[in-house]
Write a structure and sequence with these properties.
Chain B: Pfam families: LUD_dom. Chain B: This is LUD domain-containing protein. The complex is a heterodimer of chains A (about 450) and B (about 190). Chain A is α/β, with parallel strands linked by helices and about 450 residues long. Chain A is about 50% helix and about 10% strand. Chain A has 23 helices and ten strands. In chain A, the strands form two sheets. Chain A has a six-stranded parallel β-sheet, with helices on both faces. Chain A has a four-stranded mixed β-sheet with strand order 8-5-6-9. Chain A is globular, with a radius of gyration of 26 Å. Chain B has helices at about 5-15, 35-45, 60-65, 125-130, 145-150; strands at about 45-50, 70-75, 100-105, 105-110, 115-120, 130-140, 140-145, 160-165, 170, 180, 185-190. The model of chain B has no long low-confidence stretch (mean pLDDT about 95). Classes of the chains: A alpha/beta (about 450), B alpha/beta (about 190). Chains A and B meet through helix 3, helix 4, strand 1, helix 8 and helix 10 of A and helix 1, helix 4, helix 5, strand 8 and strand 9 of B. Strand 9 of chain A pairs antiparallel with strand 8 (about 160-165) of chain B.
Amino acid sequence: MSTLHSEAARRFNDNREKTTWHDATFWSLRQKRDNMASGLPEWEELREHASQIKQHTITHLADYLEEFSAQLESRGVIVHWAKDANDFNNIVLDILQSHGVRKMVKSKSMLTEECAMNPFLERHGIDVVETDLGERILQLLHQKPSHIVMPAIHLKREEVGRMFEEKGISTEKGNDDPTYLTQCARKHLRNQFMEAGAGMTGCNFGVAKTGDIVVCTNEGNADMTTSMPKLHLVAMGIEKIVPDYKSLAVFQRLLCRSATGQPTTAYTSHFRQARPGAEMHVILVDNGRSDILANDEHWETLKCIRCGACMNTCPVYRRSGGYSYTYFIPGPIGINLGMLHDASRYNDNVSACTLCLSCDNVCPAKVNPGSQVYMWRQKLDSLHKANTMKKCMSKGMEELFDHPQLYSSALRLAPLANLIPEGLTHIRTLNPWGVAHAMPNFAKESFQTMWKKGKLKKQ
Amino acid sequence: MTYKDELLEKLRRNTRKQYPMPDTPINGISYDDTIKQFVEMSKSVGSNVVMAKPGENLDDIVRNAYPEAKTIASNIAELTIATINPDTVAEAKDLNGTDVGVVCGQIGVAENGCVWIPQDMKEKAVCFISEYLVIVLPKSGIVNNMHEAYDRIRMPKTGLGTFISGPSKTADIEQALVMGAQAARGVTVVIREE
């Protein structure tokens, strides 16, 4: 019955206080998102548009990529095409080495996590400095993000304060006030921006018609990253394209409202070319996306804009935390992306869903991640990953429900189960469903019997 | 050969049904008093708003807003109290230590407090490295929503521009909101009649 996810979730729940905090924190984000949504009469229209624009763009992707890259190249931006993670990492390393870069600052990019870029570059002697506060904290603690928008959400201020003291980033002993710690990080990162030979950003949206790279942050760290060093690298998945500014307006309005419940990020920055005297490279990454396009059931995962709303609303994510999932992107969308990346390796996450479909209802691009999890579950048997006990039960129920006489006899005998002591019905290995559940009492007489005896009257 | 040709060919091959763009435009939210909404929204994202009096001197406005500022960076000609110019500094680093940066905004967005700043200066760092940022915005540039804003954007020759909505902020430590993460700790939007 258990999966790697459910086992990890059980451990996460050992700390009741932290679990409750985690759950409440993400639920409050969901509520902030709802406030934003209800403040715009056109909210549902925006979602539908976003979905249609993405469906269109993704099914005309080759044309848009040609237009986009031609626009960038016309202004001297160097465009690279990476087939997979390895390809991407080597392209980045080549650019950095040919410019003699020893230190690179970077803003948040889930794509670089996907490609495991940081450890690769570090092995080649390049110091990579994350500049998003949450990412920097995790980097210094040698941890991975537990959420795609709020990567360090699982940490408490004491843990951050202690680490800042150890690293010499903060000087006041025992001061773990978030404002103080943020100011210390500001000073620490300011120096990194000044020293770095290159800056890397991700890309929230690439505008085909104009060649704009659009990056949204609250801290302004992508802007510092591109304002100081004279070499700007952009890591971009090929699905990030939108056709034009009209389309971009739809996504800009949806992204932050869905993600954190703010009306916008503090910064929505456009880069069409390198700044005066600087050089800009855009690395377009496939890494399996072109295969997803051919997947009839799951191609719409390519519509995802990585806002994290599906995680914030997910009852399983909220109560199990990002680290309980085996893929680096957790929550409903992560379950799907993991399966698409390597189904034999990441299928443990498919259990992390109650099929409540709350995620389908908040997703700004209508990716419907929950409905897709349902489809993966139908395929577990063909992956030899269906649970044996559940399979037996399904078979048994099939027999029972296909044979009315057998069903009636079973119903007559069912009250006998009331006599079995709880110690037997709740043996965890025999009956995992017994965990945290009381056994219901069977009625002495079934509805069917009562009906036949005329004990029930038609109203 | 680069991967480009192989990828484009594969994408075309792997595309099943093709979908059209939505054909009806979005009817974006609009406000009875767009200026008032912009001012309220700007305040709620953490900005100060100053309504300039007709003919009021920009030097005075900046002085009043930040009386203790020593280093003031700007390429706006009428700002005579500027001590450093982002167009003429040798390096972006030279702007480090700026107390107040003063830049021109073109479009203000009432729904979210965003101001479009065309980054026509040599070193756009002035928009982010300054401790505090003053954005000068013509009243006529204020629009209802992002649809209207994106219809109006004129990208400068540098090919760079940004929407800024309030100060730099983070909630990465325990969801506690802190202003002044990496860029400006505070923002003042100055709205002027043309």
